[in-house]
Structures are given as C-alpha cells and as structure tokens.
Specification:
The chain is an alpha/beta fold. It contains 9 helices and 13 strands. Bound molecules: NADP nicotinamide-adenine-dinucleotide phosphate (NAP).
Length: 334
C-alpha cells in the first residue's frame, strides 16, 4: 500500500490516543500525520513513532491534502466536519454515531461486512462499541444457522464514556478510601460499587423506554449483518470496570446449533478467540481482554429454556476493537 497522509480528529481523547497507538503498532503506512483537537489542546504535543507532533485546532481548512481521517471527537464535530473533509477528497472513518444509520454511509466491522467499504462516498461509519464485539462473534453462527432473535445485556466499562468518566471512577475510589464524600459529575449516579442501567449519561431514554445505546445495538446489528429480520432486544449497563465491555448474549436460531458446533464455528472465526473451558475456570474476562485487538467468547451453553437457543459471554476492549482498532482495520482496507 502507498503511504497515506492521515489525520486523527479528537487525537487527545481516549479513543484518539488509542488510534495513534494502533497506527503505530500495526505499522500503518503513514506518509505524514496530523493531530487535530479543540481549542483546549492548542499548546499540546503528542508523540508518533518517537516524534513530537503539535496538536492543531480543527477548522474548515484542516483537511487540505489529507487522504484518510480517523474521527473520534463526538457526534456534532463529525456532523459538521466529516462532509467538509470528504469534499476535500479525504476518506473519513467516523467513530461517532452521527452517520451510522445514514443509508448512504457504510457501517463496517471488517470481519463481518468488509465488502461494504468500497461503496463509500467519502464517509465510513465505525459502529457502536457494544455492537461491534457482538456481531464479530455472532456472524459465523448467523451464516450457519440464521439467528432469529438476540437478547443481550451489557456490562460496559467507564472508558466507553471518555476520559472524564475514567477519572470520575478513580476519584470516587480515592475519596472512598480517604472517607471523603464522593463527587458525581459525569454519571447520573455513583459509579463506584454500582451498576447503572442507563447509557449514555444524558438524554438517554427514548419514547419506547429503551436507551439510545440499546437502540443502537438493535438498529446497527441489522445494518451490519445485512439482515433486517434479526430481532434484537438489549439492556445496556455501565459497571465500574475501566477497560473492556462484557456481554451476556442469548441467541435463538432457525436451525439448532450444538455447543460443539458453536465452538467449532467460533474457533475458526476471524478476529475471535474462543476461551471456553469452564471446568478450568477459563472464560473471557475484562482484565485479560484489555489491550487486545480480538473478541473473546466463552461460557457457551445450550439454553435450557428453548430447543434452538444458545447462551454465551462475549468480551472485547471497547477502546480497541470497539473503536480505534476497528477504525484502523477499515483504513487498512482503504
Ligand atoms: N470511548 C469509547 O469506548 C468509544 C467507543 C466508540 C466510539 N466512541 C466515540 O468516539 C468519540 C470520542 O470518544 P472518547 O472516549 O475518545 O472521548 P474523550 O476522551 O472525551 O475525547 C474527546 C476528543 O474529542 C475532541 N473534541 C471535543 N470537542 C471537539 C471540537 N469541538 N473540536 C475538535 N475536537 C473536539 C477532544 O479534544 P480536546 O482534548 O481538545 O477537548 C478530544 O480529543 C465519541 O464520539 C464517542 O462516542 C467512543
């Protein structure tokens, strides 16, 4: 591949910094790289392959000469600047939810629907983190037995809500140890020692009682799998874990899938690591998935309440497979 001129938008954020690290670790062919963020980061520098690069303030002229831009600076920034970048001839891989359900924009998880990348018109959307890891694990089973219905409950890390959210959990831990009152700013309730069934933190609930995050899992799964007939219901929960989302997933299939067959399919699936030896207490954990690119699956069992259903436990690093690594994979296809 010819080296590319790359921009990272939101370079100072949790996902942006993971994007930079992933470009470095995968030896992405970079001709030149530009880091963009808000006015707040004007004086900052970030390292790329040992070189200190100043962070520039994002504006309408930022994309002249850029070939690929990885965006992770929130929905409103993407809504405004992704079309400007595309107009300047740059291909945008966008991490926000701004473009995901636009019928003109491919929504891509390379292990599932890499063929959609070539249909882009300047913007490609990276799906929601919880959806990405679920579809990586479910695609091989869907191809074999057609999934009719998915029931998922998530256990999502605080890093999914950005760096202020990670800091809030750490601050609450410290305050608790020191016997001081816990400060609550980012999350709607104390996150330390708690599970909060509301994602995102603000304006979460839709008229049907589901949260935005839950409806993203419903709608994005159908679009990525290319099958609007798959029925999905989700409950998304924030837990006091720093990195990696875990998911309890129940699937009902048209054709029966045994545990052995599911293990065989997943053992051979791209991007999946099967970790399923419960007798030896081997199953995926958030702590071991953190820092890894793959999606981990275990606790596979036949659902005793239904003749054609399976339960499983799916874990992946939300900042890597759920965001930065998936975006860099798309850039590699480009
Ligand atoms: N965290 C995850 O697991 C995850 C997963 C998938 C997708 N995402 C999405 O990725 C995006 C970033 O998430 P994050 O967790 O990295 O958040 P974060 O840690 O809070 O970082 C936000 C980044 O956006 C930049 N930014 C904010 N407003 C801006 C503006 N008006 N102009 C230019 N830059 C601006 C910030 O720059 P300053 O430092 O200058 O403020 C910072 O670099 C969000 O859209 C999020 O939904 C996150």
């Amino acid at each position: 591949m010819n080296p590319k001129v790359v921009a990272v938008v939101g370079a100072t954020g949790l996902v942006g910094r993971k994007m930079i690290e992933t470009l470095e670790n995968r030896n992405f062919p970079v001709k030149a790289i530009k880091f963009l963020a808000s006015e707040r980061s004007r004086v900052r520098k970030l390292a790329y392959k040992g070189e200190e690069i100043p962070v520039e303030v994002l504006d309408e002229n930022s994309f002249k000469g850029i070939e690929i831009a990885l965006f992770s600076a929130g929905g409103s920034t993407s809504k405004k600047f992704a079309p400007i970048a595309a107009k300047d001839g740059c291909v945008v891989v966008d991490n926000s939810s701004a473009w995901r359900m636009d019928p003109e924009v491919p929504l891509v998880v390379p292990e599932v629907n890499a063929h959609e990348i070539k249909n882009h018109k300047g913007i490609i959307a990276n799906p929601n983190c919880s959806t990405i890891q679920m579809v990586v694990a479910l695609k091989p089973i869907h191809d074999f037995a057609r999934i009719e219905r998915i029931v998922v409950s998530t256990y999502q890390a605080v890093s999914g809500a950005g760096q202020n959210a990670v800091q809030e959990l750490l601050n609450q831990m410290q305050a608790y140890v020191e016997g001081k009152p816990l400060e609550i700013k980012v999350f709607p309730h104390q996150i330390l020692f708690n599970c909060i069934p509301q994602i995102p933190q603000k304006d979460a609930f839709e008229a049907n009682g589901y949260t935005n995050e839950e409806m993203k899992m419903v709608n994005e799964t159908k679009k990525i799998m290319g099958d609007p007939s798959i029925q999905v219901t989700a409950t998304t929960v924030r837990v006091p874990v720093i990195s990696s989302h875990s998911e309890s997933v129940n699937i009902q299939t048209e054709k029966k899938v045994t545990v052995e067959k599911a293990r065989e399919l997943l053992a051979n699936a791209p991007g999946v690591v099967l970790m399923d030896d419960p007798a030896k207490q081997v199953y995926p954990l958030a702590t071991m998935a953190a820092g890894r690119w793959e999606t981990f699956v275990g606790r596979i069992r036949e659902d005793i309440s239904h003749p054609r259903a399976l339960d499983m436990w799916i874990v992946a690093d939300n900042l890597l497979k759920g965001a930065a690594y998936n975006a860099v994979q798309i850039a590699e296809y480009l």
